[in-house]
Design brief:
Strand content: 15-25%
CATH superfamily: Trimethylamine methyltransferase-like
Largest sheet: 6 strands, mixed
Distance between the termini: 30 Å
CATH class: Alpha Beta
Number of strands: 17
Structural class: alpha/beta
CATH architecture: Alpha-Beta Barrel
Length: about 350
């Protein structure tokens, strides 16, 4: 495991993040979250900005389990997460796919089922995820139901739950109750919800509502600031990590306000931005360096952490796709990541699988 920061540098990032939480605050654009924070003793000011005392944050973070055992439909495929234990999860969210005729097109629910079958058959993958590709032939209102059913039908590994709205999250968790039995979720982690932040320093109502749905059912949540380095963070790598860390800590702390002791995962999505064109970039050295630094921060708090694997910006499966994916994967594996998302299928900066 490679750790580029010494103990003093880790502490400086930690203290900078706590100063951001205390002095700048984080915006929680959700009336329920605001009331929750008031009851927890936070300093809530105008425009839904919550200023978090460092002592309060650290007390809440301490109650997050350091390890999570996931239960699959096939008990032989149960997995453990945290400490030295890692799991690999396919990519998700691709609005296009490249088929066997090398045609880039919009995916269907049948295509998604095929990708779930592939994830099921691959021994290197521990999860079938959820919308590996986005099934464009289904109406958005019902899409989350079909995606979840496909994950359950075509694989007996663990899977992810849709968090596109609080109602959709509740639907997914109800489907899990049907699959595993009433009351099973209360004591067993079976799925994972991802909640993205709006960097810089904002958590919105949709994500917070979905987060509450998962935490109340005692299911793990990825608390994932969405970072475009140099665009919604400072251009400096260290300053960007301090901001990301503050955002992640605020969400991790909120999971424990919702339900003390519920499982939560330090998450993030990392990309950088071209200083010439403003276009998002994948597979850059800065992403790898930030992965190493974030891994050290997560271990300082003794919480599992999620990162993204095999990120590249190539438009076809060529040498560029190979070396960008290899660069990111090397950093991910050497940084000690636990929940390793986007581990298969990623290309064109996530635009197609």
């Amino acid at each position: 495991m490679l750790e580029p920061m010494d103990a003093e540098q880790v502490e400086r990032i930690h203290q900078a993040s706590l100063a951001i939480l205390e002095d700048v605050g984080v915006v929680f654009r959700d009336p329920i979250a605001i009331e929750d924070w008031k009851r927890a003793g936070a300093d809530v000011r105008a425009d839904d900005r919550v200023h978090l005392d460092r002592g309060l944050v650290m007390e809440l973070i301490k109650t997050i389990p350091s390890r999570i055992e996931y239960f699959a439909r096939d008990p032989a495929k149960n997995v453990e997460l945290g400490g030295p234990k890692s799991i690999f999860v396919p990519m998700t969210g691709a609005p296009f796919m490249r088929d066997l005729d090398d045609v880039r097109r919009g995916p269907t629910i049948a295509d998604l089922g095929t990708f779930h079958k592939l994830a099921h058959m691959m021994p290197a993958l521990h999860s079938s995820a959820h919308h590996i590709v986005e099934p464009m032939d289904l109406v958005v209102a019902h899409r989350h139901l079909h995606i979840t059913y496909s994950s359950m039908k075509h694989s007996d590994k663990i899977f992810m739950g849709m968090t596109t709205s609080p109602k959709n999250a509740e639907d997914v968790l109800d489907m899990c109750e049907i699959l595993f039995g009433e009351g099973f979720l209360e004591t067993h982690a079976v799925t994972t919800g991802n909640c993205n932040g709006n960097s810089p320093l904002v958590w919105d109502q949709v994500m917070l509502g979905a987060m509450r749905a998962f935490c109340r059912r005692n299911q793990p949540v990825l608390c994932s600031p969405f970072v475009l380095g140099g665009a919604n963070t400072p251009a400096s790598t260290a300053a960007a990590v301090a901001q990301l860390n503050a955002e992640a800590l605020s969400a991790l702390a909120y999971t424990q306000v919702i339900r003390k002791g519920c499982p939560a995962i330090y998450g993030h999505y990392l990309s950088t931005v071209s200083m010439q064109s403003g276009a998002p970039m994948a597979g850059t050295p800065e992403i790898s360096l930030m992965n190493f630094m974030i891994g050290q921060m997560a271990r300082r708090y003794n919480v599992p952490w999620r990162t993204s694997n095999l990120l590249g910006g190539a438009k076809v499966f060529d040498a560029q796709a190979g070396y960008e994916s290899a660069m990111t994967m090397m950093a991910v594996l050497m940084s000690g990541a636990n929940y390793i998302w986007h581990s298969a299928g990623w290309n064109e900066a996530g635009m197609h699988c």
